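for the writeup, i need someone to sanity check this before i put it in the appendix. the sequnce is what the collaborator sent (i think, or maybe the updated version? ugh). structure was predicted straight from it, no edits. if anything looks off just tell me and ill rerun, i have time this weekend
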Amino acid sequence: MKDEIDLIDCKTLKEAKQEIDGYIDYYNNYRYQWNLNRMTPKYYGDMLRNKNKKDGRSKSEQPPLNLLIKY
């Protein structure tokens, strides 16, 4: 981060905080990470959280919805 943003131009603490918050938002939501399979940290975390359901099967292994609904 210290090499990617310039805080010297910030005249107040509030401006510095806005720069840092903006960079953190960019880093977590838009900057792809090669060690996370070229995904953003947010997308990768969301993928891990949604991978397994209560029955232990991944989303792709879930039966189709029409098989779960009883008429």
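The first helix runs from residue 13 to 29. The two ends are 56 Å apart (CA to CA).
thx in advance!!
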